[in-house]
Specification:
The chain is α/β, with parallel strands linked by helices and 150 residues long. It contains 5 helices and 5 strands; from the N terminus they run E-H-E-H-E-H-E-H-E-H. Helix 4 links the parallel strand 4 and strand 5. The chain starts with a strand and ends in a 15-residue tail after the last helix. Bound molecules: adenosine-5'-diphosphate (ADP). Adenosine-5'-diphosphate binds next to helix 1 and strand 4.
Length: 150
């Protein structure tokens, strides 16, 4: 069975993440959306809220699971026996950043990172922009799945 984890902060889940997860499901038997817990990072949404947004968005999709994890992504992959990491690429900055992480992960463990190029329609969406819109009371609903409500 081919399984991949899709790691991230998902603060909050956006239509960009949603698109990558939906397309990932066509490539893998199971996608584990893994919310990384970083004690030093300040989040807008609690871990429980972020997890609920994702679970509700994919409630009808048995091939998608949601978990939380702490520590290195590759350690978590080894722990749960997953051989692939799925990541989305939006632009050259994402590419450079993701390239360094993927090379480092390959040095640490025999785990392949699989990249999906973002869909044109969601390529501009970032959680940081969504948070900015929310903070300033703008209409964020076009940027996120219906399950994400403040
Ligand atoms: P991180 O904190 O690791 O950056 P994010 O939650 O921001 O986590 O993103 C998780 C993954 O989703 C990353 O691979 C990121 O490139 C991808 N991603 C984020 N926004 C989009 C988007 N609009 N289209 C495609 N992929 C995206």
């Amino acid at each position: 069975m081919k399984r991949a984890i899709f790691p991230g902060s998902f603060d909050p889940l956006t239509l960009g993440h949603y698109d990558i997860i939906k397309r990932g499901v066509t490539l893998f038997d199971e996608i584990i959306v893994a919310i990384g817990v970083n004690a030093d990072k300040k989040y807008m949404f609690s871990l429980e809220e972020r997890q609920q947004f994702i679970e509700d968005a994919f409630a009808d999709e048995p091939k998608i699971k949601v978990v939380t994890y702490e520590g290195l992504t590759v350690d978590f992959c080894n722990k749960i026996g997953v051989e692939f990491i799925l990541r989305g690429l939006r632009n050259p900055a994402d590419f450079e950043f993701e390239k360094a992480i993927a090379h480092t992960n390959r040095d640490l463990a025999p785990i392949e990172t699989v990249f999906l190029l973002t869909s044109a329609k969601t390529s501009y969406i970032a959680s940081s922009i969504v948070r900015d819109v929310i903070r300033n009371h703008g209409d964020y609903t076009k940027l996120v799945p219906k399950s994400v409500r403040t």
